[in-house]
Design goal:
alpha/beta; 8-stranded parallel beta barrel; 11 helices; 31% helix; globular
């Protein structure tokens, strides 16, 4: 049996296996004030056989929202809604971390109340469009965060992390990948600042390190993970030379002692960097490799020692009992892309499980 099916100690927390459910935006927070619903609780509970569940992106503040109907962790209603989710997952023996995702410049004023608008390290408008309830709309120029606003944003992450603990989560994952706010500070095409928060690699990692340290101080480093995606071009990001900044980032956060680093490896050519970051980081490495040819190949990443946990996204969405299907090498339900995001409850919890389990 593959090592991926054996238990793992994750910063003092016993995981039942080394298969993780990757965070996936669903846009179905139809409860009061963008809070989770009973259906969301059922959705996550169905997938509790994962060694580790990382939730969809959760905005840490009102201004951090980037898509319609995404949940937050900044109100009492949201804490109560997430408590239903964590209770349901824990009742089935699962472990669940909330992914805190401030979308930064990836958003639209139509999604935000009053005079709020998307923000970023620099006023650089992303190419492309964003889905809103009125249809696709062009991105707008983000408001550049002032030094005071940066510090206030760090405080928002800390408050949301504390709220996550109050909601019963086992921990939180900071979303520093896929072109969202933390990633925007790391990348040279989105961070054009000349103050202490931009310019050199040391300055561009400062926001990520500051948030990570502040959250770890607030809730305990053993309850914190960080997700990164070096050289991932999604959301109009450009990192032509990622090795330096990500090496510096990992060396800076390693002494904090966080539970894990979650790395999305965008292309096979990034494997040398993955191996180097693995050597630099003393905690657990969760690895998501969407370029792999098949499900079993990812299991081999654990067997070969490249990763401690291997993460699956769309395949977990379509196969609630994915660890068992991996154990038997299928069969696998094919993901229906029409059910990925919002638009009602269709396809949210009705993917079939193996009848032989």
């Amino acid at each position: 049996m593959s090592l991926a099916f054996e238990s793992l100690d994750l910063a003092g927390r016993r995981l039942t296996n080394r298969i993780a459910m990757a965070p996936m935006t669903r846009s179905r927070a139809y409860g009061p004030g963008l809070s989770p619903t009973e259906t969301m609780a059922e959705y996550y509970a169905q997938r509790a056989s994962a060694g580790l569940i990382v939730t969809e992106g959760v905005q840490p503040s009102i201004g951090g929202q980037g898509y319609p109907d995404t949940p937050g962790l900044h109100s009492d209603e949201q804490i109560a809604g997430w408590r239903k989710v964590t209770d349901a997952v824990h009742a089935r023996g699962g472990t669940i971390f909330a992914q805190l995702m401030h979308s930064g410049r990836i958003g639209h004023p139509d999604l935000l109340p009053g005079e709020l608008r998307p923000v970023g390290p620099s006023p650089v408008t992303p190419a492309g469009q964003l889905f809103t309830k009125e249809g696709m709309k062009d991105f707008t120029e983000p408001r550049e965060l002032t030094p005071d606003a940066i510090r206030a944003t760090v405080d928002e992450y800390v408050s949301a992390a504390r709220n996550a603990v109050a909601a019963g989560f086992d921990g939180i994952e900071l979303h520093g990948a896929n072109g969202y706010l933390i990633h925007q500070f790391l990348a040279p095409n989105t961070n054009l600042r000349t103050d202490e928060w931009g310019g050199s690699e040391e300055n561009r990692i400062r926001f990520a390190v500051t948030v990570t340290r502040a959250v770890a101080d607030a809730i305990g480093a053993d309850r914190v993970g960080l997700r990164i995606s070096p050289a991932n071009p999604v959301n109009d990001m450009a990192e032509p030379e990622p090795d330096g900044v990500y090496g510096a980032l990992v060396r800076a956060i390693d002494p904090i002692g966080i539970a894990y680093l979650h790395l999305l490896e965008a292309t096979p050519e990034l494997r040398p960097l993955t191996r180097e970051l693995r050597r630099e980081f003393s905690g657990a490495l969760v690895l998501n490799t969407p370029h792999e040819q098949g499900p079993a190949e990812r299991l081999a990443l654990v067997e070969d020692g490249i990763a401690d946990l291997v993460a699956y996204g769309a395949l977990f969405l379509a196969n609630p009992d994915l660890p068992e299907r991996l154990r038997t090498d299928g069969p696998y339900n094919a993901p229906d892309t029409a059910t990925f995001f919002g638009g009602g409850e269709r396809g949210f919890t009705d993917y079939p499980v193996l009848q032989t389990v």
